[in-house]
Amino acid sequence: MRRREFLGVVGGAAASWPLLSRAQPVERMRRVGALIGGAESDPEFQARVAAFRQSLEKLGWSEGKNIQIDYRFTAANRERTESFAKELVALQPEVLFASSTLPAAALHRESRTIPIVFGIVGDPIGLGFIVSLSRPGGNMTGFTSSEPSISGKWLGMLKEVAPHVSRAAFIANPATSSYDQMLRAAQIVAPSLGIELVPIRVLTAADIEREVQAFARGPNSGLVVPADLTMAVHRDVIVSLAVRHRLPAVYGEPAMVVAGGLLSYSTDLIDLYRQSALYVDRILRGAKPAELPVQAPTKYTTVLNLKTAKSLGLTVPPGLLVAADDVIE
Predict the structure, then answer these.
(1) Which of 244, 267, 11 is nearest to 144 (CA)?
(2) Among 3.40.190.290, 3.40.50.2300, 3.30.300.20, 3.20.20.450, what is the CATH number of 150-266+301-328?
(3) What is the 3-state secondary structure (H, E, C) of the chain?
(4) Which of 3, 32, 212, 241 sits in a 20 to 30 Å window from 222, CA-based?
């Protein structure tokens, strides 16, 4: 694999924050609650949490010395998410970190006073988390995972790498993603690409298997899989189904391509955890979430799996190959 380094979503803004505020001495133990949507054993979520921890350490926070972080991992289970949200709020931390939409919604229901930083949320305004991106209001702020228009980009890339595709399933869990918002954007673009878009809403791994198997019976089919906690937790299921049924697929998470998927186009999700730690730091040092703007991604990366492309009998266009930031040989 080769990788071209790129700037974090708010790297420039972070660099301009006063260095003096980061260097101020911390005299007492502070408490943070972190509700993580993935499984604790999942290497992808381990990498994301490690980035969060390392970012805090660089800002002067040492676990067990001046900060205590209470982690809870939900594996996209709604009941577990609700239970852990109550548990974390009861601990009365000074800041709560919600990794994505489902944890953020659960924490939002439990507290309107404890500051909450969310890491990967597609539509925070539509979900009622904030009033506006520039002035969030309330007790929540954080980072969005993508612009709705990215859905059209996914479809365009699918058509580019697999020109024969004339129907595409748009598959995700509306409870753990901004599904409807992204679907509307995709529906605008699909006709111009000669693609019939088939919405597929799923909740569980069993749903994914049943729906993809049924969809794959049609000819010239492909998949579009947005960044979604449910898809991330069940990435092996969705990727194996795509391979088994020879479905070209474009994903919203690079980890899908590492797991054997064909192609992804997304922001750096691990970096969003890293950037979230910067906001946690600022709040611990006195900033108000209502005054911290929600940051939208400005840089995206493309990951391509050539081995999967060859197994599907696809010839990757030279332009796409050159544009890829990561290529898995």
Answers:
(1) 267
(2) 3.40.50.2300
(3) CEECCCCCCCHHHHHHCCHHHHHCCCCCCEEEEEEECCCCCCHHHHHHHHHHHHHHHHCCCCECCCEEEEEEECCCCHHHHHHHHHHHHHCCCCEEEEEEHHHHHHHHHHCCCCCEEEEEECCCCCCCCCCCCCCCCCCEEEEECCCCCHHHHHHHHHHHHCCCCCEEEEEECCCCCCHHHHHHHHHHHHHHHCCEEEEEECCCHHHHHHHHHHHCCCCCEEEEECCCHHHHHCHHHHHHHHHHCCCCEEECCHHHHHCCCCEEEECCHHHHHHHHHHHHHHHHCCCCHHHCCCECCCCCEEEEEHHHHHHCCCCCCHHHHHHCCEEEC
(4) 3
pLDDT in tens, 241-280: 999 999 999 999 999 999 999 999 999 999 999 999 999 9
- Of 210, 285, 281, nearest to 241 by C-alpha is 210
Has this prediction a pTM greater than 0.90? no
Distances (CA, A) of 33 to 1, 107, 116, 285, 290: 35, 10, 9, 16, 19
Taking the domain 2-145+268-291, which CATH number applies? 3.40.50.2300
Q: Which pLDDT tens digit goes with each residue over 8-23? A: 434 444 444 444 444 4
Assess whether the region 2-145+268-291 and the region 150-266+301-328 belong to the same CATH fold: yes
